[in-house]
Design goal:
The complex is a heterodimer of chains A (about 850) and B (about 350). Chain A has about 850 residues and is α/β, with parallel strands linked by helices. Chain A is built from 32 helices and 26 strands. The longest helix of chain A has 18 residues. The chains are: A alpha/beta (about 850), B mainly alpha (about 350). At the A-B interface, strand 7, helix 17, helix 19, helix 20 and helix 22 of A face helix 5 and helix 9 of B.
């Protein structure tokens, strides 16, 4: 099934609130739990800056080509008051979705776009694509005089409700919301399915050492045991009632507890609540406002509170309640709206309208240690069922049913939409647009057609110039070669004067520049103009070019209207770089090119700090996947462990060798293949370590079990060795690098990968197995346990294997290459942002 | 049942409800006439009917759902006999429910006639299966799919042709490039040869010029000295001063002569040649390798050339001219692309406007 997910709510203001977070986590879990389905993420190009961070959220789940970014005309938010523009934008977006032709469309949030140019209509044109929307709550609809007193807000909300009603399926965040939807959405005729919600792993892995709270929570002014409530400061959250209830507690309780409010408030509301507290007879320090806290602090606050109280009048989904339970806090809460679904036991509920009832319930549990402990335990147990995976599976099941039962007795919508009046162009015709607006609309349509790769984009051939090192033992040379292999139309390689001119039947290679700072690139510049290129893409690394000359080259081409992009393979200035060798020199020119591609989010952030963001795109580094034929393992074959990467200190290789003897002692008959090349450094550090390790192998009597391959192998050969092992171990001890290229090779081999618990592996954390520690004993225990778990095909190892497979697919160099070629085509022929 | 619903995406919540035998329920209506009893319990019909002990209360009509939930599979085998044995006759099946009539009210049976049929004078909706419009739509659909197939075949052909054309073009480009390279090499060779010959000529020329002027100076000097001598001979008392003067002049003339030969003619010529060569080599980088190779036997010379090149960095064309040249070239490329985009824009515009 091809599923498109509209995640504009992760770009709009909603991204900071519950809706953005819910949609993001749900989408991630849907992708992670459905290996056989294809997913497209729809994003709005008017919120360009948010795209990179959303992409990076999915970088281990989806290849870059699965993000579809559409244009809509400016000035299309509802409150801007130009309905023609909004309708135009809505039709343009739906037309884009039609061109992508997914089997189903899921809209993260329909109720958007009051003050923002976020466009989420449903089925205004007959696309024939079943559409599902998430149903959060209908609070404003129930409580109109309070939330919809403003005329514009009301009109907007009612329009959005009509879009909800036009959907074919609603995914409700709780049973309460589902029931409410059935009751209140009179014109809705589809299914409403409760998919509930999950909580983030960080609330579950609460014993993880990373989240040990160092600063203490004293900085918030918490002195005594405390009662906790986390919520925004909306009156329906009922902080008032909780303060009243707190003041009604018996003296002994009231004096031994503080009441802590977590939430992003403002001075006036704090003052108002504080004075209410004093009026109710509470001491000045009885109430604490922490303001906004980060997630680690929140976990700690949950863990240490004696009681979590959730007295809200109205909730569609009580995530804080579940988070608190998962962290081991005893919880009580309102018995209204959706909240009873999330309370661990009916006896934990109270009537939020009555402070007396709240006080009574608080006292009931606070005075009875055993009861409190019981509440804590059932809560923790109850919380385990709320995982994003479970929600995602429910959502996918419902989408699948929707897809199968879609109404297609007459699949004529193609014919209808390309001729009749109902199609996008027909609809646009009916809108009375000014010439300017019409021009703007057509520009967006054509941009979107380019994005969705329509035929006209392929009518002309492109001539691409690819400036890069070539056929040398340089990472960027092999990077270029790998990418170009999958290009439909091969670029012309403009390479440095190399030792050999490489005749190649497939690609043209013209040596025309000198690597280093001495070439003023005049030859390259002349050649580029003679070749009459459509697009020039430059593989950039410090040390390749003299920056001023490169700058000149870029400016010249941009001025002449040639489409130009760069791939920055590094964005950190080398230490002690001369001013002319710092990226700063290039920035003005980089700001003018069509695209700057970088490999990671941290690169993006670094460039964004220097004011470069609007043309920066994420292009993950791919790995080559090969269909490695794994030999059928006979049961009596020794299981083999492999290691990979340069033979250098800090990589834990001696520890790994030592761990072999521990495994042997435990009766584990394993063998170890070390594919660790000599780094060949002048100081001989690597060689020294190798001989040291070889001696160690001898002295531990492991010669027949440990084999060392220390010569440099081509990737292909390394992969062959790795793929023949049962597990690849990266026993790193400590390292200053921020991410590991070696572990990517390990994952590319398709064999399970195990790593020591270090932040360097954070970017692949779901796709690898984690060893309990870094010592030889811990490595030995970890590897044995993991191999056993794999043997038994345990659930957790299956999940890791699935994530690894997702990782491999999202980093498949052929996908990335196709994506890049498409982007170049779009830049060259289609999209013009100017 | 619950599992089936769950698969459709519904949340299942177990709820305990009180169960009572049917006869107890019927007994609560003692003394009242029950006309209609409907049993719809999602698969638990057998349990319900078996809980029906003989009771004084006898509903006139009993309707029981008799297919397995959400299917057309009959499910009445397990309970019908019991119902019949309790004095109920089967009367009618509507596709979902079975209707039974109590023996005490047999006359109702006559009401249950045949099912919906032609004598009901119904009308057929346009999009119903039997509608004549349906078959036209079917045909249209089929035609569409045929056309699509045809289109796919044509597109395939077109793609093949394009590919073939692309390959041919590639060959042509490769050929052209090879030819260009050969021509360039030839030209470079010719140019190099020409340069050498020219160099030789200019050296010869310079030598000749130098010899010529040297000869003239020599003659002058001889004549001058002759005159001096005559002066000396005629006016001996004035001899000393002019002789010294003449001697100094001669020295000056000699050094002038040397300078002329050395710098004024040969070196500028050589310099011009070398500059020309350098420009050519810079313009066509591929010649550079050939030249460097051919100069290998003369390391001194090539070394000096290298120095010369280093001392004379390329100025190229003046920036303005260079810029214009580039702009002209590139303007062509971007115009082609812009045209493609613009034509699509115009296309969309006209579709909206028409």
């Amino acid at each position: 099934m091809r599923v498109a997910i509209d995640l504009q709510c992760c770009q709009s203001g909603s991204r900071l609130g519950g809706i953005g977070r819910y949609s993001l986590e749900l989408a991630k879990a849907m992708i992670a739990s459905s290996p056989d389905d294809e997913f497209l993420i729809l994003l709005n190009n008017r919120y360009k800056d948010s795209i990179v961070s959303i992409r990076s959220e999915f970088s281990n789940l989806l290849p870059p080509s699965n993000f579809c970014v559409f244009d809509v005309p400016a000035g299309c938010s509802f409150s801007q008051g130009v309905p023609e523009r909004l309708s135009t934008a809505e039709i343009i977006r739906e037309e884009f979705v039609r061109q992508l032709n997914p089997d189903v469309l899921h809209i993260g949030s329909v109720i958007e776009g009051l003050d923002e140019e976020v466009v989420t209509s449903v089925k205004l044109i007959p696309t024939g694509i079943p559409t599902a929307s998430t149903l959060y709550d209908l609070i404003p609809l129930v409580n109109q005089e309070r939330y919809l007193s403003h005329e514009v807000a009301r009109e907007h909300y009612m329009q959005r409700i009509s879009y909800l009603e036009r959907s074919d399926l609603l995914l409700a965040i709780s049973q309460y919301s589902a029931d409410e939807g059935r009751r209140l959405l009179k014109n809705f005729s589809g299914d409403i399915v409760n998919i509930s919600g999950g909580i983030d792993n960080k609330f579950i892995y609460r014993n993880h050492s990373k989240y040990i709270f160092k600063d203490g929570i004293n900085k918030f002014g918490i002195k005594s045991p405390y009662i906790l409530y986390t919520a925004s400061f909306d009156t329906r959250k009922n902080q008032d009632g909780l303060i009243k209830a707190f003041s009604m507690l018996p003296d002994n309780l009231r004096n031994s507890y503080q009441l802590v409010f977590v939430g992003n408030g403002w001075p006036e509301i704090y003052q108002k609540l504080q004075s209410a507290a004093i009026k109710a007879g509470l001491a000045a320090d009885a109430i604490v406002f922490t303001g906004r806290v980060d997630d680690e602090e929140l976990v700690e606050l949950y863990r240490r509170c004696h009681l979590f109280v959730f007295p809200s009048f109205w909730e569609g989904l009580g995530l804080p309640l579940i988070e608190a339970m998962a962290c081991g806090a005893p919880v009580i809460g309102s018995n209204t709206t959706s909240l009873p679904e999330f309370l661990p036991h009916p006896s934990a509920g109270f009537d939020p309208k009555s402070p007396e009832a709240i006080a009574e319930k608080m006292a009931e549990f606070l005075q009875d240690r055993d009861k409190l402990q019981w509440l804590r335990e059932i809560g923790q147990q109850y919380a385990t069922q709320f995982t994003w995976r479970a929600s995602a599976e429910k959502a996918m099941r419902a989408l699948r049913v929707l897809y199968k039962s879609r109404v297609t007795p007459f699949p004529l919508h193609d014919a209808v939409s390309t001729t009749g009046e109902a199609n996008a162009f027909g609809k646009l015709k009916k809108i009375n647009l000014s010439e300017d607006d019409l021009g703007e609309a057509v520009k967006c349509i054509v941009n979107n057609e380019a994005e969705s790769d329509q035929d006209w984009l392929h009518a002309d051939d492109m001539k691409i110039g690819w400036i890069s090192s070539w056929k040398t033992r340089c990472g960027i040379a092999s990077y270029s070669e790998n990418l170009i292999e999958f290009f439909g139309k091969k670029p012309i390689i403009l390479a440095p004067y190399a030792v050999d001119r490489f005749p190649s039947p497939e690609v043209d290679v013209i040596p025309c520049w000198h690597q280093g700072k001495d070439d003023d690139l005049s030859n390259l510049r002349l050649l580029v103009s003679d070749l009459d290129l459509d697009h020039i893409i430059i593989q950039f690394n410090y040390g390749f070019f003299d920056f001023e000359s490169l700058s000149k080259l870029l400016d010249e081409q941009v001025r002449c209207g040639v489409s130009v992009s760069l791939v920055l393979h590094s964005t950190t200035d080398p230490t002690n770089a001369a001013p002319n060798d710092q990226l700063q020199t290039l920035l003005p020119s980089l700001a003018k090119v069509d695209a700057v591609f970088v490999h990671s989010l941290s690169d993006c952030l670094r460039l964004s700090d220097r004011g470069l963001s609007s043309n920066v795109h994420l292009l993950p580094q791919g790995v080559r996947l090969r269909d490695v034929k794994r030999p059928k393992r006979s049961s009596n074959r020794r299981r083999s462990i492999a290691s990979y990467g340069f033979f250098l200190p800090g990589k834990g290789l001696p520890e790994l060798i030592e761990s072999m003897s521990f495994m042997l002692r435990d009766g584990r008959d394993f063998e170890l293949l070390m594919v660790n090349a000599n780094y060949g450094d002048i100081g001989g550090v690597s060689s020294g370590l190798i001989s040291q390790c070889k001696e160690m192998i001898c002295s531990l009597n492991l010669e027949d079990r440990v084999k060392v391959i220390d010569e440099y192998l081509e990737d292909e050969e390394s992969l062959y060795h790795l793929s023949n092992s049962d597990i690849v171990v990266f026993p790193y001890q400590n390292t200053k690098e921020s991410s590991s290229a070696a572990v990517r090779m390990g994952l590319a081999s398709g064999v399970p990968v195990a790593v020591t618990p270090l932040p360097i592996f954070d970017d692949v954390k779901d796709a690898v197995h984690h060893l309990p520690g870094r010592t030889p004993e811990e490595i030995a225990v970890g590897v044995s346990t993991i191999l056993d778990a794999i043997e038994r095909e345990e659930n957790e190892t299956r999940m890791v294997a699935e994530a690894a497979e997702r990782w491999r697919r999202s980093h498949d160099v052929s996908q990335i290459s196709r994506h890049l070629e498409h982007r170049i085509r779009v830049m060259t022929f289609g999209r013009s942002d100017q | 049942m619950a599992r089936q619903h769950e698969e459709r995406g519904y949340t299942v919540r177990p709820i305990l409800v009180p169960c009572r035998p049917l006869s107890t329920i019927l007994d609560t209506y003692k003394g009242r006439e029950i006309h209609w009893l409907k049993i719809d319990v999602e698969g638990m019909e057998e349990n319900v009917i078996n809980s029906w002990e003989p009771s004084k209360v006898r509903p006139w009509i009993v309707v029981v759902e008799s297919t397995k939930p959400t299917t057309a599979d009959p499910s009445h085998a397990g309970w019908e006999s019991k119902l019949l044995s309790m004095g109920y006759d089967f009367a009618y099946f509507d596709g979902l429910n079975r209707f039974f009539i109590s023996k005490d009210n047999v006359d109702i049976k006559s009401v249950f006639g045949p099912g919906p049929n032609i004598f009901d004078n119904f009308l057929i909706a346009n999009d119903a299966y039997f509608s004549p419009r349906f078959s036209t739509l079917k045909i249209a659909e089929e035609e569409l799919s045929n056309e699509r197939n045809l289109r796919a075949v044509l597109e395939q052909d077109l793609a093949d042709e394009r590919r073939a054309k692309g390959a041919a073009e590639q060959d042509l480009i490769a050929e052209r490039r090879a030819k260009g390279a050969a021509e360039q090499e030839l030209a470079a060779e010719r140019r190099a040869k020409g340069t050498a010959v020219q160099k030789l000529f200019s050296v010869l020329d310079a030598k000749q010029v130098a010899e010529q002027s040297a000869h003239e100076w020599k003659e002058n000097a001889e004549r001058l000295s002759e005159e001096l001598h005559s002066v000396y001979r005629s006016r001996s008392w004035r001899l000393t001063k002019p002789y010294r003067f003449a001697g100094r002049s001669l020295g000056r003339i000699r050094s002038l002569l040397r300078d002329t030969i050395k710098t004024r003619s040969v070196r500028p010529a050589m310099r011009a040649c070398a500059m020309l060569g350098l420009t050519v080599v810079r313009r066509y980088p591929s010649i550079k390798m050939i030249l460097l190779k051919s100069m290998q036997p003369f390391p001194n010379f090539s070394g000096r050339l290298g120095l010369f090149a280093a001392r004379n960095p390329p100025t190229g064309l003046s920036p303005q001219i260079e810029g214009t040249h580039g702009q002209l070239k590139w303007a062509n490329a971007s115009r082609r692309l812009k045209k493609r985009r613009d034509s699509r824009v115009a296309d969309v515009l006209s579709q909206i406007r028409e």
